[in-house]
Structure prediction request, 178 residues.
Amino acid sequence: MPKGELATGPIVTEALGQGKEVYVPYIHKAAATHSEASTSIMDMVSLRTKEDFEGLEADPWGIPTPSEPSIAGRKHCLGKRGFDPQTPGDGREGMQHLDVIVMPGMAFDRRLARLGHGKGYYDSFLSRYEQGLGASTDSEIGLALEEQVLPEGTEVPEGPHDWRLDALVIGDQPILRR
Prediction:
């Protein structure tokens, strides 16, 4: 797990134990066209069981990640369009609605803005996910230690591509909501 972020393993394990479907990030190379270079993107793929989750290996950031050979046998929350944005048709076949998206961050502010690690993986994913749904999302939740939340009146820098959270859970404090 990257330093300074809360571990979500117990949440994942509990959700799987309750029979809920859980999706985890998977970072891979996007299909490139002739005019653009290959780039890494993040998608969300399903876990099968608690044992499946426990068997994931850490990626370079320390995040438990499915192996590349296992991806073909997993559900993809973006359906057919997930791994190939050039898929013909509307791409919604097989798309999965996510009830909650837990958003990591290095810092948060009280306006529900977050500072990630600078790669834009979650912001890009959320844009593609909302476009695929054809509707806005309202399920992005951040988990933070008190030390990660900036003092009142101090703001996380934001750009036009940045997504704000719908709620922020800060230790044992009241949940901040939009």
Residues 62 and 71 are 19 Å apart (CA to CA).
